[in-house]
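Audit log entry. Action: structure prediction of a protein-small molecule complex. Ligand: magnesium ion. The ligand was supplied as SMILES and no pocket hint was given, so placement is left entirely to the predictor. Protonation state taken as written. Sequence taken verbatim from the request; no trimming, no tag removal. Recorded inputs:
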Amino acid sequence: MQVQDHTAVRCRGLSKSFHTGDTVIRALRGIDLEVRAGELLMLVGPSGCGKTTLISVITGILNQDSGECRLFDQKWSDLPEGAKTFYRGRHIGFVFQAFNLIPALSAAENVAVPLLINRVPRREAFQRACAMLERVGLGMRLHDVPSQLSGGQQQRVAIARALVHEPKLVVCDEPTSALDADIGRDVMDLLRSLGRTGGRALIVVTHDSRIFHYADRIARMDDGRISEIVDSNVGGLGS
Ligand SMILES: Nc1ncnc2c1ncn2[C@@H]1O[C@H](COP(=O)(O)OP(=O)(O)OP(=O)(O)O)[C@@H](O)[C@H]1O
Ligand SMILES: [Mg+2]
């Protein structure tokens, strides 16, 4: 009988330092963390504690100095650099604070990008992009460029782009911090309802205590370490 592994991300003893001149910054100091398939894990902690560095290692953008990081069955260190880009493009979706949409492309074109990168034929890519935009409530704005959309709408486009290729992992770095409270809640509602299907894991980096209750678990980071992990409904960190 096959044993089902419900772990999406597994980090063991991750360390990462940055060297600038004579200074060494130890951004990650021995991180052990598991993210379960189907869960929304929030990563919180003070500015500079290593959150972005950790998600960069988890997504294979940065190489750790020591320790191990796996995404489902794949150990990043087993992949050559070129294959990492391909693997990331296939299996990971990203949402950023600043949306990072391509200004000259329409909403539909922006959302189609991950599919085109994955060699989905153009016609199918645009059909799927439009269907995804319908799901995030932007079926009427398919042909608008980002500057014609509000911040909340641009973040919806970014969410559609992060999900359209059905990645195994979605990583969001401060997805609500540029948005007012109501729009931030809409964005989290969407991420939670559309994002966690099919065993997909979500990691959301945030300072925004107004959205802590959307998490299944909250991992607090402090000075390069995970200092505690709590179930969000058990309290302690949430509001
Ligand atoms: N490319 C780099 N070169 C040098 N130092 C870096 C680099 N990237 C990050 N650092 C340092 O590593 C530490 C962790 O940075 P990181 O960006 O991971 O923090 P963070 O928790 O995401 O902070 P914030 O909440 O402000 O985004 C900081 O001291 C930062 O200055
Ligand atoms: Mg950061």
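Audit: result stored. The pocket of magnesium ion (ligand 2) is lined by residues 51-52, 173 (CB under 6 Å). The helical segments are 51-58, 81-91, 107-117, 122-135, 151-163, 181-195.
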